[in-house]
Amino acid sequence: MRIILLIATLTLAQPQPGRSQAAPFTCWIRGSADNLAERPSPLDSIAVQIGGGTMKLCYSRPSARGRKIMGGLVPFEQPWRLGANEATSINVPFPAEIAGVRVPPGTYTLYAIPGASKWQIAVNRGVQRWGVPIDKDVRAGDVGAGAVTAEPLGTPVETLTLKFAPAAGNATELIMEWEQTRVRIPIRRTSG
């Protein structure tokens, strides 16, 4: 029985003719996975299918816990890691545009420079790193940045939430909601 299962596993792992076999993307964490449950800001991931490819994002979810978030814990006009703990990372298996920034297939980190009504969303090459500081050395890896508009929310959101809007053709939005702020980051698959 074990031999049959092993053979079946090896057969399933073989590349299929005519199909590209991208390696699965996993969230990078610093340190031991045994300590994840102890973190006050839990690790989470989201994914969306666009045009036959799966885009995945990994981030940690801090909670407000009575603190002022926008313009307080998340200061205006200063880089913020768009989460907690490790840098927020996004894997795009196809050429794409994130907040207007063109990128080839690969893994990137995202950070924001929030303002009261406009945010800059930076796409960075530096992966597998702790989220702070976002200093000149980190910023030297920026691919580019695009501007998005902040919207007010009627009902406060206690825990930072990132989610993908349902794909529409070759496009989606990465939606960030926290406290009483929503930001929509456009993402679209490009031809190259």
Could you characterize the architecture of this molecule?
The chain has 192 residues and is mostly beta strands. It has one domain (41-189). Helix content is 8%, strand content 44%. The chain has 2 helices and 9 strands. The chain has helices at 2-13, 136-139; strands at 43-50, 53-60, 88-92, 96-98, 101-103, 106-113, 118-124, 142-164, 171-189. Strands 1-2-3-6-7-8-9-4-5 form a 9-stranded antiparallel beta sheet, with no helix packed on it. Strand 4 and strand 5 form a beta hairpin. The longest helix has 12 residues, at 2-13. It is globular, with a radius of gyration of 18 Å. The protein starts with a helix and ends with a strand. The model is unreliable at 1-23 (pLDDT under 50).
Q: List the helices and strands in order.
A: HEEEEEEEHEE
Radius of gyration: 18 Å
What is the total domain count? Answer: 1
Q: Tell me, what's the shape?
A: globular
Count of discrete alpha- or pi-helical segments spanning 4 or more residues: 2
Question: Helix content range of the residues, please?
Answer: under 10%
The spatial strand order of the largest sheet comes to: 1-2-3-6-7-8-9-4-5
> What is the overall pLDDT average?
87
Low-confidence stretches: 1-23
> What is the makeup of the main sheet?
9 strands, antiparallel
Structural class: mainly beta
- Using DSSP, what is the number of strands? 9
Strand content: 35-45%
- Spatial gap, N to C terminus: 47 Å
